[in-house]
Amino acid sequence: MADTMTKIALNLERPHITPREPMHPGYLEFGQAVPDAATISLDDINIVDPEIWRQGAYWERFARMRAEDPLHWTEDSFVGGVWSGTRYEEIMKIDIDHKCFSSSWEHGGIVLGEPLEDFELPMFIAMDEPKHSEQRKTVQPAVAPNMLKEFEPLIRKRTQELLDTLPVGEPFDWVDTVSIELTTMMLATLFDFPFEDRRKLTRWSDVSTNRENPDICPGGEEQWKQELLECLTAFMGIYQKKQAEPVRNDLISLLAHGEKTKNMSPQELLGNVILLIVGGNDTTRNSMTASVYGLNKFPEEYAKLKKDHSLIPNMVSEVIRWQTPLAFMRRTALEDVEMHGKTIKKGDQIAMWYVSGNRDEEFWDEDPNRLIIDRKQARNHLSFGFGIHRCVGNRLGELQLRILWEEIFERFSHVEVLEEPALTSGAFVKGYTWMPVICHPKK
Question: What is 4-441's CATH superfamily?
């Protein structure tokens, strides 16, 4: 990474972050130093504290929970009482047991805390059987293998054109210039959304998962609702238009003609649109940034990849494991469940911390904290979930990341990270808001 004088000369400053009040008594104030994980009691870990995530101080806390209390109960947090499952094996058990552990929005959905009573967002990932599979099957054709073959030349062309516009030898923000732009172009295609308005998709994705974040929603809940209703208005118009046209393979057309989705309520349409936007945007864009950051953090792996481009597909899986772009998914117990000598009571919410399971020392053969691009177990990561709720677009995300690196090597000898990236401040979407880089040309 660049030295301090180089950074100053670049004059590429981090984005402004609004100081904020703690979300709950006992939580950290903005900028407050995070206590060492070894010096506090497990009861005081409060892993959902946004400041812990903004400062990237969660790894030691998860390591303690895995070692000392892998099924940990937090009585008092701003999302209410919550169980934390932190080991790979337990997370897998919960994820595949949809009979005991519900994803349904009627029981709380897939994020922690209670949903707004007057603004519920049903979506197929937040549904139980049989409705979940009925709606999931409706959208699957948009990302089926035949569609991936059709998308590949388009993704490659767009990636080539974007990379060709990058300022070689000059600093720029990789997050906004590359990661967001590439994923948003793909989202616009999947939705058949007006291409010139594609950045609205990014905005709605950011808003939907940042209701309490003053950098995204300074107007709080009122602004959050207003902007999501604007999203609904836009997509309701597209949905109704698609109903009057022959069915096509874009997501909204499939929803408009699906037997189980052609008569969705406005709230259900909005819920599914938000799900598909976040799933297609946040996960892929943060993995794209993580790939550059991780290879800089572990230069021996970058050197290995430069020598052998055939490692790119496995590197993609390893980056998705190492990054874990969605840190957790919530489930709600439908009955009392015994686990680790404890009783998860009916109605309790439990967070499956994928981010922790992907670093579980008992599961991964090699140091899980390292990015190892030829890791044999890379495809066993938890980042896409397991069971009936496994990410429907996982292959498309992998394809985008693979093409990105194939095209990077056609143009650049090295993509250099100049400074530690700025991190998101929520515990759900785990990602980056800014990362300055310089692209060095091939010699």
Answer: Cytochrome P450 (1.10.630.10)
